[in-house]
Design a protein that fits this description.
With 368 residues, the chain is of the alpha/beta class. Helix 2 packs across helix 10, helix 2 runs antiparallel to helix 11 and helix 6 crosses helix 9. It binds ligand V47. The site of ligand V47 has 26 residues, from strand 6, strand 7 and helix 14.
Length: 368
């Protein structure tokens, strides 16, 4: 953590933000009620200043991004999550499976990170996933692999009857460097029963991340918001993650994911940019023990994502390449961004772009 600069006095339009500003400056933990206040305040600029000051205490003026590619090996999935437009069943017209060679072809030799997430496929053997990681490491030796959500690890365990630890050990031996934060959705049994019944719940998701951390594997965490969840459920999700991070300390980054309506249409309207910014700021303030908060341009759109860099986020994810999950759900963002564009977006938020790999080792600081 960097030394906190002397904080200027702020006049808040919403007086309920004053105690939150004071607590945040003192490094005191925010409560559930504080989180609820942040999520509903009408003083958006006031909230942004508190969250930006918190982000600066952690990362100074730096905002991280990575030259990466998202690879989704197959969309065939045994689950039927109600928010998901990506999944297909065997025989569907839009079902696909990439070969290992096709996947290698999607990975530019200079990328720093490959992010791999796919459907829970009914017949691909576990050895195929090991072969995939080995092939990437051999064909693209400079690339770090961030792969498989805890939901996929849980599926590998159940489908192949391999203990969790062995699943992770074998993937690690094959080249896994870190794990993405997907599959967490919302830590609420009510929402799980409504929307993603067949998938690992909060306890199981957290158990797998704790195990990964105990083995030295860093991971990320997400929250899928803007559908049927309540503000209280969002805040409780953040509090559970904060508690879990106190225990194992292995999370690198938190990413709030804005639900894309696509054709699943769980609600009438997608979350507004104001809701996106409040959620980002609330995440930065509640998750005082998370090193990084990501403003994920693929789901919130480039404009909101870049404003998010003044609302507590210190990471813009990456160039992405041909991402399929959000785009299957009709995300309006482009399929990928050029490195130069990421640098410009970060500079336009008056921050210093820093290119990183999956485990946040600095590759280049764009300070000129
Ligand atoms: O777990 C599925 C979500 C996630 C929709 O760790 C949807 O750095 C919105 O986890 N609208 C996968 N979201 C993506 C993910 C991720 C993305 C970027 C970076 C990282 C990281 C992780 O996508 C799933 C699910 O929560 N998702 N359908 C939808 N309609």
């Amino acid at each position: 953590m960097l030394e906190a600069p002397a904080a200027p006095a702020i006049r808040f339009r919403d007086p309920a933000l004053e105690p939150i500003w004071e607590k945040s400056q003192r490094g005191e933990r925010l409560s559930e009620d504080d989180g609820l206040t942040c999520l509903s305040t009408r003083d958006l600029t006031g909230l942004g200043r508190i969250a930006d000051a918190a982000a600066r205490r952690v990362s100074g003026d730096r905002v991280y991004f990575t030259f990466n590619v998202h690879v989704n090996p197959t969309n065939i999935c045994v689950l039927s999550c109600k928010f998901c437009d990506f999944a297909a069943k065997v025989g569907d017209d839009h079902a696909y499976e990439y070969s290992i060679d096709e996947i290698i072809g999607q990975i530019h030799p200079d990328v720093h990170e490959v992010h791999i997430v796919g459907g829970h496929h009914p017949t691909i053997p576990f050895e195929w996933y090991e072969d995939l990681l080995r092939a990437i490491k051999s064909e693209r030796p400079g690339v770090q692999i961030k792969a498989f959500t805890a939901a996929e690890i849980d599926y590998f365990h159940k489908r192949f009857k391999i203990p969790d630890r062995e699943v992770l050990e074998r993937l690690f031996d094959a080249g896994l460097d870190s794990m993405p934060g997907g599959g967490a959705e919302v830590f609420s049994e009510r929402v799980r029963r409504e929307l993603f019944r067949g998938k690992a719940g909060a306890d199981r998701w957290l158990e797998i991340h704790h195990l990964a951390h105990s083995m030295g594997i860093h991971t990320n965490a997400t929250l899928l918001y803007g559908h049927i969840e309540t503000h209280r459920e969002r805040v409780r999700h953040l509090m559970r993650l904060r508690e879990a991070q106190d225990e194992s300390g292995g999370w690198l980054c938190f990413i709030p994911l804005e639900y894309q309506l696509g054709t699943t249409l769980l609600v009438d309207r997608q979350a507004s940019p104001i809701d996106d910014l409040r959620t980002l700021a609330t995440s930065r303030l509640m998750l005082d023990n998370f090193p990084h908060i990501k403003s994920y341009w693929v789901m919130s759109g480039e404009e909101t994502a870049s404003i998010g860099l003044n609302f507590g986020a210190d990471d813009l994810d990456g160039t992405i390449g041909t991402e399929r999950i959000a785009h299957a759900a009709l995300a309006a963002s482009p399929l990928g961004l050029e490195r130069d564009r990421m640098v410009r977006l970060i500079r336009s938020a008056d921050k210093i772009p820093v290119e990183r790999n999956a485990t946040y080792d600095v590759q280049k600081v764009y300070d000129a």
